[in-house]
């Protein structure tokens, strides 16, 4: 079972669009949380990534990986594919 991917984003954010496009190209399903208007999801994002002040904030499993640039770097290095395979719960 692949690791769960979550992305916190805002409307009109080019970096968010870029990160989601990378995930879409790779066929990776993700849950997107829009924090444009603040609210509970923004508070949740800040709890999960206390020092993050920008979007997107991307989580693979429970691990925060950062934003679009970090996601792209993980993909270029091949580490993204490793992170996406859920080795903790092999079926």
What does this structure look like?
It is a single chain. The protein is an alpha+beta fold. It has one domain: 3-Layer(aba) Sandwich (Glutaredoxin), CATH 3.40.30. It is 41% helix and 19% strand. The protein contains 4 helices and 4 strands. Strand 1, helix 1 (14-25) and strand 2 (31-34) form a beta-alpha-beta unit. Helix 1 (14-25) runs parallel beside helix 3 (68-77). The longest helix is centred in the N-terminal third of the chain and has 12 residues, at 14-25. The protein is globular, with a radius of gyration of 13 Å.
Chain-wise SSE layout:
Blueprint: E1 5-9, H1 14-25, E2 31-34, H2 40-48, E3 57-60, E4 63-66, H3 68-77, H4 79-84
Envelope shape: globular
The CATH top-level class label: Alpha Beta
Strand coverage percent: 15-25%
Largest sheet, described in full? 4 strands, mixed
Structural class: alpha+beta
Output the strand order for the largest sheet: 2-1-3-4
CATH arch. level architecture: 3-Layer(aba) Sandwich
Task: State the CATH topology.
Answer: Glutaredoxin
Mean pLDDT: 93
Number of helices: 4
Number-wise, the strands total 4
Name the CATH homologous superfamily: Glutaredoxin
Could you give the distance between the termini?
A: 7 Å
């Amino acid at each position: 079972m692949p690791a769960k991917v979550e992305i916190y984003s805002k409307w009109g954010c080019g970096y968010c669009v870029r990160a989601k496009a990378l995930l879409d190209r790779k066929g990776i399903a993700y849950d997107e949380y829009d924090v444009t208007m603040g609210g509970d999801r923004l508070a949740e994002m800040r709890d999960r990534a206390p020092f993050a002040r920008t979007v997107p904030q991307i989580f693979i499993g429970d691990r925060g990986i950062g934003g679009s640039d970090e996601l792209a770097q993980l993909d270029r290095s091949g580490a993204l594919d490793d992170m996406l395979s859920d080795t903790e719960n092999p079926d």
